Amino acid sequence: MKTAIIEGDGIGKEVIPEAVTILDYFNETYDWGIEKIYVDVGLGKWERTGAAITDEDIALLKSCDSILFGAITTVNDPSYKSVLLRIRKELDLYANVRPILPISGIYKLLNIRDQKEADVNMIIVRENTEGLYSGIEEIGDEKSTTTRVITQKASARIASFACGLAFGRKNSLTVVHKSNVLKSDKLFLDTCRQTAESKGVAVSDKLADIFAYDLIMAPQKYDVVVTTNLFGDILSDLGAVLLGSIGLAPSANIGDKQAFFEPVHGSAPDIAGQGVANPIAAILSLKMMFDWMGKKREACLVSRAVAAAVHDEVVTPDLGGKYSTKEVGNFILSKVRQLDAASFCLEDPEDLPV
Ligand code: IPM
Ligand code: MG
Questions:
Q1: What pLDDT sits at residue 347?
Q2: Closest ligand 1 atom to 74 CA
């Protein structure tokens, strides 16, 4: 089993090492035999070499089973192409999975009173290969267009994937779309509906604008949500409001053979180098990697250890704490060890915060 590690730029270099120490702990303790391969891509590499990612890097990533990724800074230069989008496309990582499940105790820590943690437990499944991210654009001085591509094949594939998640949960799926205006979304909606019906999953749908309102006002109405690329991008950042901080939002980009795990936050150049970035989104992304690998107990231990950090208020300044990235990472690692030694999560590891 090979796992690529991409720290990337900015705070990616600070948060990923905290996740890696936890991976190392399990890999060494339980002899998992995971080979780590560090891959250097991103703005730093572009400045040094003129290429943010090379064909060799892509080939190397294709040879790995999973990828743990920090963040990359994208600059506004016509010759700079998004590394993240290239990796998603070339590795055909079609399902972008963004769980909206608050860490137990986080609302108390942040003094959030108008929302209940128990009401928030959904997964936003974002189609990751087409829609407004098709890359088909004509840019002019007076008119610019971007082509929104929706295919039956990609819509059925993402709907099947979302149904797979729904099976293990409430067996219900909500399709989020804007087919009252975008006729391309009629194909998305119809295909998702047919797919869900053929699999025996209860399906409903919601227009994207009112869904945005509901997401904050009535999140208890939703469980597994499937949507197109740009809506998923925007709605998952909005959903992170329900987590208490974007620094707590993990994600997975899943394909048929490989998967790529990344915190939703970016490289945050404004706070990079200060040692204050929240490592929890990166650590929960590792937790998602453990789930994907079928290592349910280890995933459960990581969730518990993260919840312990929140409970004991060992958190970074974005959550009102005074601890550094390293201190929070060290605390979570020591909790993982302690819970592991105490045989936690041995039976029926619950799926706690993702
Ligand atoms: C995300 C990001 C990316 C996206 C950017 C960095 C290209 O916002 O993963 O949500 O738009 O998909
Ligand atoms: Mg985004």
A1: 75
A2: 6
